[in-house]
Each structure stands twice: as structure tokens, then as C-alpha cells.
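Ops channel
N.P.: pipeline sanity check, posting one input/output pair.
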């Protein structure tokens, strides 16, 4: 993984959770990482924890018109972008018939359209160097049906299709594109939700062959691998990091 040293990565939604873990793992490999997010206070706290190799920029990627200027600013201040991790995303949990058009579109805007626009602008900066790596964060919600998250499921399924289409078009130009589909990843929020619903917790762990939830660092490790030369011949894949949940019974 030493080839990652001194490279530059952008991690959207990098101020907390999986995004923070991804940024931390990339920094541990000697990279400089730009974390993006809407919460400036949270970003500042993350930057302080991650150290001088981390630079935080408060930005709302749903403001599509501002993305070209944002990417140009990063390139001007920090140099060529080597890796983009499209991690930022939102969910909307409601019964199917209660999901409004506005809520559905907001999830698609954040989880799909903003990913497209961010990737397009970053790719423009990668093409002159003939190299680059994009890692999209999908979900097990794209692997099989989950009730009450119709917009999220649609958005993550779109991400997987985009990943394959981007890989076919961009890989001949030296830019690899892959995705990671996390399973149940431990957090205070998931622990609280599952601990309050023993039946659901048993179902989650029962269909996961490894019998446990993953850690955010597991996703960070997968991003490091897909970003490194160890994955130089891997493009267009969706890698489940789920303890076998997607193939469990």
C-alpha cells in the first residue's frame, strides 16, 4: 500500500461514521485527505482528530452549481486529485405510501445526482494525469429488498449501475471505478435501534454468516484496498463488506 503515500483523496461525508473511518484509514497510509460535509463544527472536530494530513471543507454537495468551483479550489490549493470516495448520503424511512415526491427527490439528489456531478468534475481533473480511482458507497439495500426505504434502495441501485457504466467508460483512460456495499455496520444509532428490537437484532445476526455486525473501519480497509495498486486490475465491481449477509439464509 506504500504507493498511496503523498496522494490526495476527497471523502464526502467525511466528518463522522463510515466517512470518518475511511478518511482515517487513508491518512494512515500516508495520504492527504479532504473531508467534505455540511456540518462545519463536526468537520472541525474530525479534522482535529485526524491531524495535519486532513483538511476540512464545509460544503453542501446538493448545491450542484457550486461543485465545479469547489473541485477547482481543491486542485488549486492541494494539487491533483488521486482518489474520490463518494460516501455522503441520506436515508428516508417511511411506509411506501407516505413517501412524498419531495422526500423521494431529495434522497435521489443527495445520493445519486450529487455523486454524478462530483464524479464528473473530479474526473475532469484526473484525465490529464491519466490515472485516478473512484470508490462509490452503495448498500445492501441495492442487493435485496428492504421495506420502508424505497428512495434509499432506488438511489443505491442507481449507484451500482453508475459504477459499472463509469468503469467501462473511464477505465480505458486510467481511472478505475468501484463500489462497496456495506452490510450492518456498528454505530451508536444501529446499536440503539437493534437493542430496542431483540427480534430484529436476532434476524440481522441470524442471516449474517459471520454472526456479528461490522465496524466502520472494515469499510475503510476496503476503500484502502480498492484505491491501492493491489487492486490495479479491479474495476466496475461492487464489493459487499457485510459478513456474508447478502448471501446468508
Amino acid at each position: 500500500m506504500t504507493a498511496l503515500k503523498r496522494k490526495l483523496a476527497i471523502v464526502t461525508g467525511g466528518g463522522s461514521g463510515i466517512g470518518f473511518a475511511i478518511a482515517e484509514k487513508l491518512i494512515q497510509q500516508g495520504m492527504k485527505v479532504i473531508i467534505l460535509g455540511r456540518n462545519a463544527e463536526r468537520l472541525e472536530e474530525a479534522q482535529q482528530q485526524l491531524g495535519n494530513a486532513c483538511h476540512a471543507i464545509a460544503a453542501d454537495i446538493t448545491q450542484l452549481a457550486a461543485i465545479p468551483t469547489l473541485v477547482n479550489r481543491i486542485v488549486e490549493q492541494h494539487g491533483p486529485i488521486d482518489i474520490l470516495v463518494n460516501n455522503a448520503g441520506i436515508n428516508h424511512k417511511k411506509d411506501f405510501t407516505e413517501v412524498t415526491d419531495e422526500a423521494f427527490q431529495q434522497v435521489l439528489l443527495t445520493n445519486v445526482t450529487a455523486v454524478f456531478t462530483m464524479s464528473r468534475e473530479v474526473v475532469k481533473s484526473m484525465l490529464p494525469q491519466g490515472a485516478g480511482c473512484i470508490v462509490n458507497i452503495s448498500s445492501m439495500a441495492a442487493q435485496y429488498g428492504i421495506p420502508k426505504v424505497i428512495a434509499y434502495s432506488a438511489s443505491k441501485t442507481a449507484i451500482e449501475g453508475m459504477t459499472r457504466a463509469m468503469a467501462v467508460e473511464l477505465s480505458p483512460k486510467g481511472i478505475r471505478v468501484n463500489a462497496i456495499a456495506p452490510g450492518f455496520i456498528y454505530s451508536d444509532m444501529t446499536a440503539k435501534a437493534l437493542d430496542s428490537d431483540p427480534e430484529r437484532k436476532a434476524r440481522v445476526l441470524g442471516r449474517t454468516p459471520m454472526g456479528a455486525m461490522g465496524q466502520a473501519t472494515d469499510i475503510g480497509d476496503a476503500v484502502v484496498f480498492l484505491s491501492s495498486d493491489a487492486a490495479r486490475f479491479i474495476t466496475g465491481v461492487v464489493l459487499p463488506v457485510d459478513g456474508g449477509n447478502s448471501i446468508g439464509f
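N.P.: looks fine end to end. The radius of gyration is 18 Å.
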